[in-house]
Amino acid sequence: MIIEARYNGPPGSGNGGWSAGVFASAYGGSGPVEVTLRRPPPLDTTLTLTEGRVHDPAGEVVAQLRPAEPFDVVASAVDPAAARSASTAYPGLVDHPFPGCFVCGPERADGLRIFPGPLPGGRTAAPWRVPEQVGVATVWAALDCPGGWTVLGADRPYLLGRIAARVEAVPEPGTECVVTGVVIITEGRKALVHTGLYTADGDLLAHARATWIAV
User: Fold this and answer.
1) Residues whose CB is less than 8 angstroms from the CB of residue 9 and which lie 6 or more positions away in sequence, other chains included
2) What is the pLDDT of residues 28-45, one digit of tens each?
3) E strand or H helix at 109, and its extent?
4) Residues 146, 36 contacting (CB under 8 angstroms)
5) Collapsing DSSP states into helix, strand and coil, what is residue 133?
6) Residue-level pLDDT at 157
């Protein structure tokens, strides 16, 4: 496995959702998979998955994987018009800790350009035009940042620590989808969030739960 440089999150490391999706695809299984990131995934580096652990060439553990217990869909669907309206208030357009992020970075013309804006009740929503090249890792990436932006704020950066996702279907290239997020609880430096990916008609494509860590 190699996380190519274009799929970065913070500078010099892989986007957490994309990296977790690559690892989960290699892990296999029919149910949801939980990925715990033990350190920022290195870019353009050959990584090896052995017995549920992802190692770098030096043998350091990058991530741990295991089957996840089924979990409820919590981040409910949002109407596309409401998602587009929320996205206009995306805080990352003004103040973004990692503006070059492949998923939500406003500086990335070649990224997914998912800009989750706030909704009442600790929720976020964003429209997403699915790119021509889309796979399971793309879906995991789309489920990542909209959860983080339920707690991210000015001078309050968070990083993905753990994510479990279930992908029911990969969306068709060029279609418009909606990604939603909701914060469940914050405790100390940790925030538990859920995300959902829906078609424009409100059909569930994938959902995830994740733990974000304040840095």
Assistant:
1) 15, 16, 18, 40, 98, 101, 102, 103, 159, 160
2) 877 899 999 999 999 999
3) none
4) no
5) coil
6) 85
CA distance 30 to 27: 10
d(CA 5, CA 202): 33
Residue 1 has what pLDDT?
A: 95
Is the CB of residue 195 less than 8 Å from the CB of residue 180? yes
First to last CA, the chain: 27
Query: CA 42 to CA 202: how far, in whole Å?
Result: 36
At 196, the amino acid letter reads G
Please give the Cα distance from 177 to 24 (Å, whole number).
22
Return the DSSP state at 14.
B
pLDDT tens, position by position, 126-169: 999 999 999 999 999 999 999 999 998 767 889 999 999 999 99
